[in-house]
Amino acid sequence: MILTLKETISKLRSSEEQITEYSERLEELVVTRTEELHESNATANLYLDIMSHDINNAYTVSLGYAEMLRDVADSSLRNYTNKMITSIHHGINIIENVSTMRALEDHETILKPVDLDTIIRREMDTFPDTKMEYSGTPVWVMADELLSVVFSNLIDNGRKFAGLHGMVHITVKDAEEGFVQVSVEDTGKGIPDAMKEEIFNRFTTGTLPGTGKGLGLFITGTLIGRYGGTIRADDRVSGKPDAGAAIRFTLKKADR
User: How far is 167 from 186, CA to CA, in rounded Å?
Assistant: First the structure.
């Protein structure tokens, strides 16, 4: 009995030593793998920075030539140059979304007063071949420089859904106390009720043509949340989902 107890204790001690050894080896392995992961991420980010920089430079040059061509083109060619400019801006928007994703993960949001009217008009100018209407009162809101990404994504989405002969409407109006409501509407096929709560999820592809991987709307929803606002998908005409979509969100007014 005593011998058996001693053997058991000896085995337990041996097991404890093995567990300690395994734990130390596992800890070393975790440290090594973490360092490798950090190094891998740093390398990936470096490649991403280089690619984003070079691609943006190429887009900028192409955009400059396209705008020069539009200025001298006759009416029969101007429509094509406008489409070219919009396509270039769409490519820039993709790079911008990738950079925004990194910024959201790496940096804390610091809010400051932003001129909403200036942001909207500037982003509208980047889609010259899209029919748009804008109405609202100029107002300053609490956001940051990434607010332009919200409108770039929503206008681009509305443009794709509205089609060649469609329209994108942007309105700004007072909402609950201290907030404004912004609506970006299109005259496309609308968003089915079953998808309205899903389209702001990451990589929601949906069943509608032109939805892509859902990254743009995910970024849009994330930014509005960081600004302290809310966002939702609606019907442009209440009760008629096939009459077009409306993305409505709120932003906090800035004290000025």
Answer: 6
